[in-house]
Amino acid sequence: MKQNKIGILGCGWLGFPLAKNLIKQGFKIKGSTTNKEKIKSLEKENIEPYLIEIGENKDSKSLDSFLEKLDILILNIPPKLRSNIKSNYFEKVKFIKNSKNFDKVKHLVFISSTSVYGSKQGKINSKTIPVPDSKSGKEILKVEQLFKEENNTIIRFGGLIGNKRNPLKYLKEKNEILNPEALINYIHLNDCIGIINSIIEKNIWGKTFIGVSPYHPSKKEYYDKLCTEKNLNKLNFSSKETTVNKEINDENILKILNYKFKNPKFN
């Protein structure tokens, strides 16, 4: 039996296609954006739209209305600490948690990140204790602690890829790419949606999953192949010895969710 209403706080690269997917399954969806121009796009897809700013100009009224009568909240707000080093991600999320109707929401899916694991933690699985070594990772792990409850589930997604999103464009602008032998830990958009769907469909709450494809070529191997396929000049990789070498896998994706990756090689 489907839940009555799901709210997706953050209808961007992941949230918007996720909302459309859930609507096809018969769910009623509320979706938020910080961009007025996107309101019509949400309405067009039968997503009940909300303009919500959770920053310096916090909008408690819109947030309260958005959270009202939700069965499930999908909290999908990225920290954006690289673009705004003064941003306080923890305080933003705390503002959401302290809002009037938050405690009335039955279940929460918090979209976290594998940045909670340090760059030198090596082989990582569901039992690995996160030791973040970046500001973003430390903030996200701190936020996770707010939601460690039996009615909530946390998903630590790896590098997001698909739907015209690929780090290749960003990397081509760099003069030199460090850590060529570091393994990639990416996940395709279709599998992000698939994992969230599985959690909701099977009512798996009180868990923490790591959403990363089981495909782990080196950075150089993957991008050399991609450049060849796209008929582009290969990237300039550094000859320095690699210092970052995480390999992330989560057996609980298979054991608990019984989830089979749709785009394990991101194609």
Question: Could you please describe the fold and organization of this structure?
Answer:
The strands form 3 sheets. A 7-stranded parallel beta sheet has the order 3-2-1-4-5-7-10, with helices on both faces. The chain is built from 9 helices and 11 strands. Helix content is about 30%, strand content about 15%. The protein is globular, with a radius of gyration of 19 Å. α4 runs parallel beside α5 (about 135-145). The protein has helices at about 15-25, 40-45, 60-65, 90-95, 135-145, 170, 190-200, 220-230, 250-255; strands at about 5-10, 30-35, 50, 70-75, 105-115, 125, 150-155, 160, 185-190, 210, 245-250. With about 270 residues, the protein is α/β, with parallel strands linked by helices. It has one domain: Rossmann fold.
Overall, the morphology is globular
Taking the alpha carbons of the first and last residues, their distance comes to: 33 Å
Low-confidence stretches: none
Number of helices: 9
Relative helix content: 25-40%
Tell me the series of helices and strands, N- to C-terminal. EHEHEHEHEEHEEHEHEHEH
Enter the CATH topology name. Rossmann fold
CATH superfamily: NAD(P)-binding Rossmann-like Domain
